[in-house]
Write the structure tokens for this entry.
Amino acid sequence: MPHRLLSCRAMLASAKHLVRAMRPRQWTKNLLLFASFLFTVNQLWRPFTPSMWTALARTSIAFLAFSVLSSGVYLLNDVRDIEQDRRHPQKRHRPLASGAITAPMAVVLAALLLIVGLGTSLVLRPLFFVVAASYLLMQLCYTLWWKHVVILDVFIIAVGFVMRAVSGAIVLDVYISPWLYIVTFLGALFLGLCKRRHELELLDSDAASHRRILAEYSLPLLDQMISIVTASTIMAYSLYTFTSDNLPRNHLMMLTIPHVLYGLFRYLYLAYRRNQGGSPEEVLLRDRPLRLAILLWVGTAAVILLVTRSPLVAASF
């Protein structure tokens, strides 16, 4: 009996470490798939009707498919980088680097997750499967080669976010303004550059030994890039709020610009003053003001899109 109890505890511990190796906190990135649902609510989905719940269910399934797919990629990436991660001051605590789980266990789980993710995407919509498979291929190329190419490395990260936004539109078969894809790309580029800056500052002179590409960057160069991308993101989002064909003609979406400004400035503050720019998902989960800014943005956008659905209400503005 004691041996059986110990065996059950060991299995539970391994399962816990496997789940942690899947990086479920990273799934917050995949919430971007819901953008298409949010920004077409004033055109297609009547509130609290079967069509709305169907659209929400399809988007939720797509979110889960993309999440398990990305977890499979993370596992394969950790298997490949296990030796570098063991020398990293933070990554050495990951399940694979710390020895909590073995590489064969991670590979088997990754294969299962990739099969489930791709299979679910195919069932939802063949075109979604094409995007999901392209995302997987791109991430594998990134793991093997592209993450060692300066500038291209952060561009690939940004393209991954755009593919998430595209997937949300494909699943619902809706049109989304190209402006939203541009904003998504710039916003993701902003996060990627802040991540590189954090790594360079954290690892200092040992940076290149942990991640080879960091030898190609410098703090002044990254600061310049971040400054350019921040200004471009603000301008692109501002233009989106009053030029997109998908949005109400009364330009009320401009009321969401302050939320975006605050979110970007808050993240810059955390990256530069609190040295927290290395993990966007951790910042999102831990920083209350940033979470509040995002919730206010979502809430304000949803109210504007729902209220201005009615021509009579829209005309009153």
